[in-house]
Amino acid sequence: MTDTVTFADLALPAPLLQALADVGYETPSPIQAACIPHLLAGHDILGEAQTGTGKTAAFALPMLARLDLADRRPQVLVLTPTRELAIQVAEAFQKYAHHLRDFHVLPLYGGQSMVVQLRQLSRGAQIIVGTPGRVMDHLERGSLKLDTLSGLVLDEADEMLRMGFIEDVEWILEHTPSGRQTALFSATMPDAIRRVAHQHLREPKEVKIRAATSTVSAISQRYWLVRGVDKLDALTRILDAEEKLDAAIVFVRTKTATTELADKLEARGYAAAALNGDMTQGLRERVIEQLKNGSLDIVVATDVAARGIDVPRISHVINYDIPYDTEAYVHRIGRTGRAGREGSAILFVAPRESRMLKAIERATRQPIEAIALPSREEVAGRRVAQFKQLVLDTLQQEDLGFFMEVVNGLVDEHEIDAHEIAAALAFLAQRDKPLQVEESGRGWDIATAPERDRRPPRETVRDGMREERGEREPRPNRDEILSRRRAFADGALVRYRIAVGRNQGATPKEIVGAIANEGGIEGKYIGQIHLFDDYSTVELPASLPGELLGLLKRTRVRQCALDIRPLTEAEAASTPARRPRRDAGDAPERTKRPYDERRPRDNDRPQSKSYDKPYDKPHAKTERAPYPPKSGEKPRPAGGDKPWKRKDKR
Which residues are 250's β-sheet partners? Predict the structure, then answer.
């Protein structure tokens, strides 16, 4: 295929070409140009392409071209890993079939009323788009029959494998006609996916689009090396300092973190909302719609919940929590830079996560640039510039006659200078995002970190050999190491009480993991932990913000909320601290007892006889009846308990 190929050259029916012209599509993407002719010819397809390459149209257009619109029974089944993607694919079918009469597409996914879906299935639909679990439910109920199926599409098969749906997918495939046409699309091609393709596809045409370079090349990738606990402070600074930020998806690992972080951002004046699997489907759809129409600017989401989101406004993807694998990272940043648009991806990397950073660079085949955290002065300057531009736009676009009269009235009635009134209005207009950014005193960034922390993490090369190093500095003693470990913000560690202890089965490792993962606190800022029966104490920085304490209160260990709070003075006095070290001071001199001095006899235990010990007791004197001899065996002597020894040696 050449660059001059258009959709009109692909032998698509006129109604589909008209729909493509309506939305402004003229030239197919590489995946579309490669797949559409094969699918129109009836071949199976094994396609490897990243998200955002246009693969939905690559299978939707030829499937629509081969439909029998007079038959309302299911003819094409599309399986997707998430409900968001199912809705998106169904909307794409509806868009491309705009000029097809009597066309019906039905999305089936969990979270929607089963009664509604049963009613829609009874009306009939030529194309079914669904998640594996809900499709299985309808097949088992008998409400969905696939005996008339002529085409089947597995979209984002690697994601279905990662989410554990691959067995469900194979079960569904076994309940479809053997003569169907099948198209399998995946961003990556692990062995399990190839096994499914080998078993269920018939001589497929393989299409491989190197979208990692085309998609990722349109995305600016940067990372910030996390210092301390102020990830939230860093996030707000980045959101304020990015010049071309229109809308952003912020990725975190847990459902709890989505709501916690979204609430914190909203409290700081950002139009933010959470998106996770625990939300009702109606609420999830409303969040995405608000992101599209501009009511929301930031969505905090998990990997699963964000699958299938295609919103043109998304200019930035921020990996607040680093993903567990490189495939998840590629899927994440695919939410921006789609269909030729530019995008930006920012990754928060803790020092211990530098190895994953290198793996991501290898997967995307691009170096990821380190950035310094924007200073508070830069953030304040950016906010002031945005405020000035907002004022200028308002002066040019709005009729301000009434408001001029209000200001003139204030000037005349109270003899106030107009500049003072304007300053007061600017103060009121800043709301939750002050134009002057105050110093929080917490955390480090690359620009302000001590010289000791400027050096990059030491790399290791293959075969476990480290790179050669120069002369080492003298190793600090233990007190210096402890002192550095406790250096957090203002430097003080205080003892906190948490409502979980030995009786709940808690361990120090679990407590550290919960605090580090949920609170974003590095292990070096977590001090001594002491377990008691029904509670424990842990040393944490004295400068922990209240919002972080609120998050840790709800964090759970062994199904129990930590309910963390600082120890009171009375509790600290009654709760033993860690045992003092021997080198903490001079130990009192111990008196040596003379060698021949003995304790008073009345305090001694009674002298024990040697045969009181089990191994010194004499054998019992009582005789017992011998065991009846087996056939061919000599009888045992009466009273003896030792077996006969064999004379022959083996």
Answer: 300, 318
